Amino acid sequence: MATTVRELAQMIDHSLLHPTMDDAALQSGCALAQKYATASVCIKPYAVKTAAELLAGSTVKVGTVCGFPHGNSSSDIKAVEAQRAIEDGAEEVDMVINIGKALSGEWDFVRREIALLNKTVTEGGAILKVIFENDFLEEAQIVKLCDICSQEGAAFIKTSTGFGFTKRENGMYAYDGATLHDLKLMLQHAAPGVQVKAAGGIRSLEDLLRVKALGVTRVGATATAGMLDRAQQLIDEGIELESLI
Predict the structure, then answer these.
(1) Can you give the pTM of this predicted structure?
(2) Is 158 considered catalytic here?
(3) Would residue 76 show up in a list of annotated catalytic residues for this protein?
(4) SS3 assignment, position 69
(5) What is the 3-state secondary structure (H, E, C) of 174-230?
(6) For domain 5-244, which architecture applies?
(7) Burial of 168 (0-12, 13-18, 19+ CB in 10 A)
(8) Catalytic residue among 61, 101, 129, 158
(9) Can the peptide bond before residue 45 be classed as cis, meaning omega within 30 degrees of 0?
(10) Catalytic annotation on 212?
(11) Tens of pLDDT along 65-117?
C-alpha cells in the first residue's frame, strides 16, 4: 500500500528545542504541528503548559525533554523535571542518559537512572524515550543501552539530541545524528515493543522515507512542513513516495 502524508505526519515529533526559539516561535510551531497533524511537538520544558493549552482538543501530543541536551543532571533532578512536565501536560518525555557514566562503563548507574525515569513517567500516564547520543558512543555501548532499555521497558530508544557535537579533523564541530548504520543496529537489538526514534539530520522527505523503510516509527524533525508539503505535491502528481528511495 502506498505511503500517505498522514502516515508520515504521524511519524514526526515536531522539534521546538533550539535555544534561540522565542515564545512566538514556539507558539507558531505548535500551530504548524496542529495543521499537519504530527504525532507530537517536542517542546522546551518551560513551554509545556502553554503547548498543552494550545493543542487541547487536537490529536497532537505534547512531548518534552529532561536532562537535555547533555544528560548531566542528577537522577533525582531528572525525575523531578519529568514529573513537573507531566503535571504541566506532557504525554511523552525524552530523557538524555548520563553519557559520562555510559562511557565509564558504569552500567548499573545507567540502568537505575533509566528505571527511575521510566517508573516516574509511566506512573504519570506518559511514555519515556531514552536518548543515547550515538555520536559519543561505540557500537558495543549502543548495543548495551538497547539491552538495558529493552529490559526496563522503555517505550522508545532515540539516537540523538541534535546537539551532540564532536570535533572534526578540520577543527569544526558537527554531529552525524541518526545514521542508517546506527538505526539498523538499534532496530536489531531493541526488544519487540521497544520502538526506535531517529533524531538529528532528518531534513528531507527522502531521509524520512529511508528511515521509515528500516522500521523507524518516530523522527524528530524541524523541516516538517517542507517534507510533508513535498510529499503531498508528489502524490498529487501521481508519484508513489516509495519510488524516491
Answers:
(1) 0.96
(2) yes
(3) no
(4) coil
(5) ECCCCCHHHHHHHHHHCCCCCEEEEECCCCCHHHHHHHHHHCCCEEEECCHHHHHHH
(6) Alpha-Beta Barrel (3.20)
(7) exposed
(8) 158
(9) no
(10) no
(11) 999 999 999 999 999 999 999 999 999 999 999 999 999 999 999 999 999 99
